[in-house]
Amino acid sequence: MTGYESVDILLVENSRGDSSLTREPFEGDCIENPIHVVEDGDEALEFLHQRGEFADAPRPAVVLLDLDSSRKNGDEVLAEITGDPVVRTIPVIVVTNSKRHQDALKSDGPCANAYLTKPVDPVEFIETIRTFEDLWFSIVRIPDGEQ
């Protein structure tokens, strides 16, 4: 037990390999938060707004967003989230393969709350997700929004 309340996480990831790797620590005993996975930006917005097949979905406390999602790309999803009063209080963490900060958070558009670089090594990636969990859910305080 890590000393914080369990919260739902939404992962937006179109790569099945990266999705599986990201889910792994959540599905074992490593990370206690439920993770919900969608494969593209359109599904992410449907999930966040609890529409269609996601009508009964929980409102996530944080979104892990791959910028390379299909249909609606990550930049478009980020713009819609930050511009929508219903969901803009949900923190968005950009998950990227790029180590260059400007690739993850472009200055000409809406900004994410943080970014996380995907390590290539699976063990290192799992450790990165654990570190993310420790930081985000133990230290960072998310303000209560109209969720």
Give the strand line-up of the largest sheet: 2-1-3-4-5
Question: What gap, in angstroms, lies between the N and C termini?
Answer: 26 Å
How much helix, percentage-wise, in residues? 25-40%
Structural class: alpha/beta
H-E string: EHEHEHEHEH
User: Treating each run of at least 4 consecutive H or I residues as one helix, how many helices?
Assistant: 5
| Rg | 14 Å
Shape: globular
Strand content: 5-15%
Low-confidence stretches: none
Largest sheet: 5 strands, parallel
**What's the number of extended β-strand segments?**
5
Question: Taking all residues together, what is the mean pLDDT?
Answer: 75
Description:
By secondary structure, the protein is α/β, with parallel strands linked by helices. It has five helices and five strands. It has helices at residues 16-27, 41-48, 74-82, 101-104, 122-138, and strands spanning 9-12, 35-38, 62-66, 92-96, 114-117. It has a five-stranded parallel beta sheet. Helix 1 packs across helix 5 (122-138). The mean pLDDT is 75.
